[in-house]
Task: structure prediction
Amino acid sequence: MNRISCQVALYPLDVANSTSVIEDTLARMDWGGLQVVVGSMSTTLSGDEEEIWRCLQELSVTAGMSGRFVLNVTVSNYCGCEI
Result:
């Protein structure tokens, strides 16, 4: 099992209340067995590499249900990957 971590920041576009879009998107997610830390500016995921990529795809699809967005993702196979 390859562990990776990533930091994700979602920026909804053309919406009056981006916070509600972000909270709704995060609430709809199936995080599987990932470690998830939701912060005030970004969310950090760590766990199995395949599960991270699955969640990123799901996050993109889910965010798109609310309209246009920018999704900023930083991925590491070192930082945040402690077992």
The domain at 3-76 is CATH 3.30.70.930 (Alpha-Beta Plaits).
